TrEMBL record:
<dbReference type="GO" id="GO:0000155">
    <property type="term" value="F:phosphorelay sensor kinase activity"/>
</dbReference>
<keyword id="KW-0902">Two-component regulatory system</keyword>
<keyword id="KW-0808">Transferase</keyword>
<keyword id="KW-1133">Transmembrane helix</keyword>
<keyword id="KW-0547">Nucleotide-binding</keyword>
<dbReference type="GO" id="GO:0004721">
    <property type="term" value="F:phosphoprotein phosphatase activity"/>
</dbReference>
<protein>
    <recommendedName>
        <fullName>Phosphate regulon sensor protein PhoR</fullName>
        <ecNumber>2.7.13.3</ecNumber>
    </recommendedName>
</protein>
<dbReference type="GO" id="GO:0016036">
    <property type="term" value="P:cellular response to phosphate starvation"/>
</dbReference>
<keyword id="KW-0067">ATP-binding</keyword>
<dbReference type="GO" id="GO:0006817">
    <property type="term" value="P:phosphate ion transport"/>
</dbReference>
<dbReference type="GO" id="GO:0005886">
    <property type="term" value="C:plasma membrane"/>
</dbReference>
<keyword id="KW-0813">Transport</keyword>
<keyword id="KW-0812">Transmembrane</keyword>
<keyword id="KW-1003">Cell membrane</keyword>
<feature type="domain" description="Histidine kinase">
    <location>
        <begin position="45"/>
        <end position="262"/>
    </location>
</feature>
<keyword id="KW-0592">Phosphate transport</keyword>
<keyword id="KW-0418">Kinase</keyword>
Length: 269
């Protein structure tokens, strides 16, 4: 109470000896919170500042690549510059998305009814386009009447990241199944693939920023290393959790668990 601007963390525990004794610790976390907030602002500002010059570079590159009169060697160089600039744009966009998720004032504030089946339908279309010639099969099993209270854009971004990953890490001809269902524990959005899988020691760290099982493989497949960090934050803001089960060489199941308090039956027209 003597330092009203300070943030403290209280914790109490029973001391293992003696009668009716307990230990109360008070830790001043003001500095940690300030540093954390500086880090967040810094990342958000840098990402924002980098976006404009990159858009200009991308614009010029696009124009140059379209020029048929160029020497083929120069054309190839420009193509790879365009590819790298596009990768950089995706990383910056993901960093900005993460910063927005971290800085929103009230994490539980968004309570808009979200028609998840329609959302899943849109993601299924995107998935078919992404699969293209690669020949993975995408199937959807979704409860048509199950809605959720939340933020539509955030949920779209989380679900679509999981589906994109499933496609990215599943060889040609594999199977990807998207499910949206309810049980006694709540509602679940699930993506199952028959892909390369993840060795168990990596699973606990997958939602860390830029953590990858194999950096080169992820980069060459267009990953930014930020997708699962975004998924984790979106779920936290919706009172949900991400569950990951995987067998190397067999495939993976990523499940977003939402509490039943977030559920809605489709409002009747
Ligand atoms: P990235 O953009 O690299 O895919 P993510 O944060 O989305 O980054 O995922 C982190 C890492 O988790 C990936 O680099 C990859 O190694 C692993 N991963 C994610 N999804 C899958 C999946 N469906 N199958 C196998 N590995 C996966």
């Amino acid at each position: 109470s003597r330092a009203p601007d300070h943030q403290v963390r209280l914790s109490a525990r029973i001391v293992p000896y003696g009668n009716r004794q307990f230990l109360l610790t008070v830790r001043d976390v003001t500095r940690i919170h300030r540093l954390e907030s500086m880090r967040r602002d810094f990342v958000a500002n840098v990402s924002h500042e980098l976006r404009t010059p990159l858009t200009v570079i991308n614009g010029y590159l696009e124009t140059l690549v379209d020029d048929d009169t160029l020497d083929p060697a120069i054309h190839t160089t420009l193509k790879s510059m365009e590819f790298q600039a596009e990768r950089m744009r995706r990383i910056i966009d993901d960093l900005l998305t993460l910063s927005h998720l971290e800085t929103r004032e009230d994490p539980k504030a968004e309570q808009t009814p979200v028609p998840v089946p329609a959302l899943v339908g849109g993601i299924e279309e995107e998935a078919h386009m992404l699969v293209g010639e690669k020949g993975q099969t995408v199937t959807v099993e979704a409860d048509p009447d199950l809605w959720l209270r939340g933020a539509r854009t955030e949920l779209h971004s989380a679900f679509s990241n999981l589906v994109t990953n499933a496609i990215r890490y599943t060889p040609d001809g594999g199977q990807i199944t998207i499910r949206w269902f309810q049980d006694e524990a709540g509602a679940h959005f699930q993506v199952e693939d028959t892909g390369i899988g993840i060795p168990p020691q990596h699973i606990p760290r997958l939602t860390e920023r830029f953590y990858r099982v194999e950096s080169d493989r992820s980069r060459s497949r267009g990953g930014t290393g930020l997708g699962l960090a975004i998924v984790k934050h979106v779920l936290q803001r919706h009172g949900g959790k991400l569950r990951i089960e995987s067998d190397p060489d067999q495939g993976s199941i990523f499940t977003c668990d939402f509490p039943s308090t977030r559920l809605l039956r489709r409002p009747s027209d």
